[in-house]
Amino acid sequence: MNYQDILGRCSETTVSQLASTCPETLDVFRRYVPHIENHRLATVAMVASIANVDPGKLCQELFDTVMERTSIEELDTDVLLELILRGYDAAHLAKLPEIHRLARKIEAVHRANPDVPKGITLAVKKLERLLRDHIEKENTHVLNQMAHDQPPRPETPIAQMNEEHSIIKKQLKKLRDMTRNYRAPESACRSWRRFYHELKALDFRLSEQIYLERDVLFPRFQF
């Protein structure tokens, strides 16, 4: 998770908006702009410019402060939905084609190397297909129904989404087993190491997202 998942875009989120959700963020702003009360309508990026500080540094400090006061399990439903849709789904869909290309390249260039997992390209392609289908169905039939805390209709397939989560987790486990928990051999080239790094990061983010949906978000709508 990065700070934009929680704070929004630095160029759009204002001091007032952050203070309303976490008053302690005002203490962070005051370290850079003592009279921050006079700039409540300023965006985080504007405050960074006034203070002549890196916007990323300021955003990270604000993020740390917010997360110290609010656990992810306590986030509002709309914030969770935005985090899932923009912070997770969009990132997965952007990364999957690159990971698939790397898998195909490694399996083709190093096909004579016994350390290359046989069938890794097909395994990655299967994960990509499972995830794309799942995201499309989940966004259309589940998450959109939960916006603004609206209760899903009785036919909303939450149980089916959790079944698909289990299938995705099994495919992730298969990839972990095939790659020896994403440990590249000593002979691995830069692309091979990058492939394992990106795959491991995707595994972590997907597992994190499944936890948020299955154990935090979905129970709010199951009675």
SSE layout and pairing:
Layout: H1 3-7, H2 15-21, H3 25-32, H4 44-51, H5 55-69, H6 77-109, H7 120-146, H8 158-178, H9 190-217
What would your notes on this structure say?
The protein has helices at residues 3-7, 15-21, 25-32, 44-51, 55-69, 77-109, 120-146, 158-178, 190-217. With 223 residues, it is mainly alpha-helical. Helix 7 runs antiparallel to helix 8 (158-178) and helix 8 packs antiparallel against helix 9. The chain is flat, with a radius of gyration of 21 Å. The model has no long low-confidence stretch (mean pLDDT 89).
Helix-residue proportion: 55-70%
Low-confidence stretches: none
Distance between the termini: 29 Å
Rough shape? flat
Primary descriptors:
mainly alpha, single chain, 0% strand, 223 residues
What can be said about this structure in brief?
With 223 residues, the chain is mainly alpha-helical.
